[in-house]
Amino acid sequence: MNFTISKNDVTAICTSLGAELISCEKNGTEYCWYGLPEHWSGRAPVLFPVLCSPKDGKIIADGEEYPMPKHGLARKCEFTPVEITPSKVVFELVENEELLKSYPYPFCLRITHEVTDDGFETTYRVINTGDKKMTFSIGGHPGFNCPIFEGESFEDYSIYFEDYEGAYMSITQEGTGYMCPDIPKLDLVKNNELPLRYSDYDNDALIIEDLKVKSIRLVNRNTGHGIRFDFDRFDAIGLWTPIKKESPFICLEPWCGLPAGTNETPELESKKYAKSILPGEYFETSYKMTVI
Description:
Elements: E1 2-7, E2 10-15, E3 20-26, E4 29-30, E5 46-47, E6 58-61, E7 64-67, E8 80-85, E9 88-94, E10 107-115, E11 119-128, E12 134-136, E13 138-140, E14 143-145, E15 157-161, E16 168-171, E17 193-195, E18 206-209, E19 215-220, E20 226-230, E21 236-240, E22 249-256, E23 275-277, E24 282-291
């Protein structure tokens, strides 16, 4: 089921399947990816309780193995809307018998989409409703139109960082999508600018860690128009567009966790940036898109 929320000149559409925000228009201009299947049918999947491809297609939790699909479980689930206002929707997912076959922890996942004056904010809250510590990764995979307007091209755009000093960029391994320590770190950012080039994504996603300021801008260098993306309470960000398709969008993916590493085991607690919460505790994080 779809839900339309709005505030002033901004209108967004959310769907209960996967609890995704699938559209955000300001003054009639669409900023979110349309989901065309010839490029990528996804829109903005929620990645929980793993990110990207789990090692060997499984996880190990409390010493036991469980099958786990790529990007986790939440994106294929029907969420329940538990709060609806003119400008906000809150969706909820709780464990069930089927989910416990892949992730053995009782939980409540709440996802809030709220329209702002110039965009939207998405908040994830993970609640441990069980009786033992639970470990998980969580992240977003929202796609944004690039170019935004007719007559522009993907490579007219750049991603600008507030302060890239001390940060570093990795690329995931072609084929597996794993983090690989044998692949050299990439040096593509100059003067806080990463020009968009399709060829940079011919291997897979670019992953950036250790940013001092977790705010980036996706902007047309000629017009100055674009979006700002803030992800202060996340640990890393992935940048992705499909390999060798020259697709008219890019995903800005805020992550608490990382893709599996070639040298890792499938154990949840071995994952860099993974979160652990005790019974009754919760973890909350959010990201925000603003039109500029």
